[in-house]
Amino acid sequence: MFLSAIKEPVKADSKPITVVYQEEINNLRVSEADDCVKFVPTFYSAHSMLYRARSQNLPNIPKNRYDVELPQCYKETKNGENFLLHA
Description:
Number of helices: 4
Radius of gyration: 21 Å
Shape: elongated
Distance between the termini: 49 Å
Number of strands: 0
Oligomer: single chain
């Protein structure tokens, strides 16, 4: 239950996953009895699932420099001269 509920904040928020996990634990302590926190998995046991959930929303890392597409505004100076030698 906790793990399925924490996936959405991990996907939506750009904060570090450890911070999101700790915030959700603190929210659980406030809203529920402290006994519920005993049954929540540790970050170590849940971290791979949380990072996998976040990676679904992130773009792929380019494999080489040819995969990086720069807009024209980054290829020229304000005077219209070429800024990059090989673009």
